[in-house]
Sequence to fold (80 residues):
Amino acid sequence: MTDILEADWAETLPDGDEGARYYKVGKPISALSPMWICTRITVQTDEPGLHGYMRRVCIWKGETLAVEFPFISAGAVGYL
Fold:
């Protein structure tokens, strides 16, 4: 059972001194790598884990998974 939802943007919760990270389709994934443009954002339900089915946010550059984080760590997600 793998559900995949498409999103236009996603934001993490603030993490220590770094603050929140914001990802948007069509924008650079990181200021350190301006050539890595986000092509897709998905929210996926994984296989069953320790506490049931876990959701994760995936940031893609083409077919390459560039960043992922647990859905519970997302501050907000803008779905298509």
Summary: The chain has one domain: 4-79. Strands lie at 4-12, 22-24, 28-30, 33-37, 40-49, 52-61, 64-70, 74-79. The longest strand covers residues 40-49.
